[in-house]
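TL;DR need structure tokens for one chain.
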Amino acid sequence: MATNIVWHQHEVDKQRRGAAKQQKPCVIWLTGLSGSGKSTIANLLEKKLAEHNKHTYLLDGDNVRHGLCGDLGFSDKERVENIRRISEVSKLFVDAGLMVITAFISPFQEDRDYCRGLLEAGEFIEVFINTPLEVCEKRDPKGLYQKARQGDIKDFTGITSPYEAPKAAEIVLEYSGQSAEESAEQLFALLQLKGYLAHA
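>> reply
TL;DR here they are.
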């Protein structure tokens, strides 16, 4: 832990930054198994928000591991650190007045709760993409489940590493033949209903 540092309070706060963008800053945290549709839905949601002139930033699991978390593997300890870093970055983006969309497996409830705890009430929207393992494995867009079953990938969520489903997500998108576009529309409607797309 660093010492001899002091937090400097800014004169312009996130409420003012959000008001300038006509939106309520928040983190829209998509969680679910690999292949559940997180990245696809996140991309569609961001596109929809951009069409309504909202200021967003999308943090995607694979993209972040190319840079910020490029030094991390996939052990439980490294997964925790991965989400810790993402949580801190998300908090900074919220302070900047942005609507942050994240697409991470984030398998542990404690880690998702860590991000929620960094933010003020109403700023963390947990979205559980509840796609069954057998459906994700059948899709297997990256061929990861096959490699995990063959033992080529260790600590793979859903196969050799656990996934803790959210206990009280703000929204659950159930897999029932619903398209990714329909799921993104459902998410957008929730944000609109809850007042995130306009600032008082």
